[in-house]
Amino acid sequence: LIELDRAHLIHPVASYRGHEKLGVRVLKSASGATVTDATGRQLLDGFAGLWCVNAGYGHESIVQAAARQMRELAYATGYFGLGSEPAIRLAAELAQRAPGDLNHVYFSLGGSDAVDSTVRFVRYYWHAKGEPRRDQFISIEQGYHGSSTVGAGLTALPAFHAGFGVPYDWQHKIPSPYPYRNPVGEDAAAIIASSLAALEAKIESVGADRIASFYAEPIQGSGGVIVPPRGWIKALRDLCSRHGILFIADEVITGFGRTGPLFACSEDDIVPDFMTTAKGLTSGYAPMGAVFMSDKVYDVIADGAGNAAVGHGQTYSGHPVSAAVGLAVLNLYEDGLLDNGVRAGRRLMAGLESLRDHPLVGDVRGRGMLAAIELVIDKEKKIPLPAAADPSRRIFDRAWENGLVVRAFAQGVIGYAPPLCCTESEIDAMIERTRKTLDQTLD
Ligand code: PMP
């Protein structure tokens, strides 16, 4: 498999970081929070795949729902006024649970095209409102909004820009709130004030009547699990409202119980104009994303019969098998999975806090089952691990040897997003294996 992989399979991103020289790690099977590789080695998945397998692996009710749907109706397009029962029911169930008036759902195939879809919907909205000059988009440094070309431009991670001619000149950024490394320090009020000032300044320089929308993740995931202070997103949302700027909450990671509730926006007490989701929607069992749209936006861009008047859509939008999976997963969330996630999340945060005494651990942060530790060589001065030693690669490898899958970010941040079904003893084992990995990283 390793030979065939090396010869024929492209691993996006990973192939550029030397993985192809070392060979791929092949997973063979999985159950709950445990994955088994092709050699039979078992590991605890501290990252739920790629922050997505919230329900854990091998869940029979999800398997049954997919099989049933494949037998009954394997495919139906969402185009041309056609549809399928699971897609319609899932949209209705989601709308019922979404914050405020986010009553309309467009199904994408994942997170990147969910974000892409919002860019098109937003542009159409302003055209329909007679304000086509509103064509400028703002997002945040360290943010991640997918790897489509447009999404990569909203994304603020340099690896996604190099050589692609993005960000486009209509894509602007403001600094990340990043409490651990914020020039204004870690005080919540100061961080919120500085983000507001940065957004005000950007609005002024670009022109308030030119800005179409603003994108924010409630917690910045791929940028290193950056947890803004409480009240931060609400303050930014209010500022956008005052300027008539559409606010898009990218909940591709935070949605579906990752931070505790079904949606982080509810906890943060905001109703965005759009909310993008994917990952936990189907818990990774089938590809699907969902864009939520408010009544206010929908009334402008749709013709009232449910057919959004935008030339946009894909063959697999609203795929009935993915939708059936989504319905089965939603049942699980409400049948104890969210509650278990909250309990396990408390254990995870307490466990990670207990690592603060380790000489390498500079910061511990997170909410619910979304967390990270940031490693430094000098806690006082917050000096990062030397990049030359490729710390993230080494940490990932050592954790793997210790039976733990984590995400190691380039800057020496180790990310955690375990399945919400984890038991407390599985969480404890993840912490113990992390400590062992950190001790070896000191060597
Ligand atoms: N937005 C956010 C906030 C994400 O974290 C991601 C994926 N990590 C995406 C969009 C893109 O999702 P996908 O990889 O499913 O295309």
Automatic annotation (TrEMBL):
Gene Ontology molecular function, alphabetical: pyridoxal phosphate binding; transaminase activity
Names of the cofactor(s): pyridoxal 5'-phosphate
Presence of keyword Transferase: yes
Keyword Transferase in annotation: yes
Keywords for this protein: Aminotransferase, Pyridoxal phosphate, Transferase
Family: Belongs to the class-III pyridoxal-phosphate-dependent aminotransferase family.
Protein name per UniProt: Aspartate aminotransferase family protein
Gene source species: Bradyrhizobium icense
The organism's taxonomic lineage, starting at the top: Bacteria, Pseudomonadati, Pseudomonadota, Alphaproteobacteria, Hyphomicrobiales
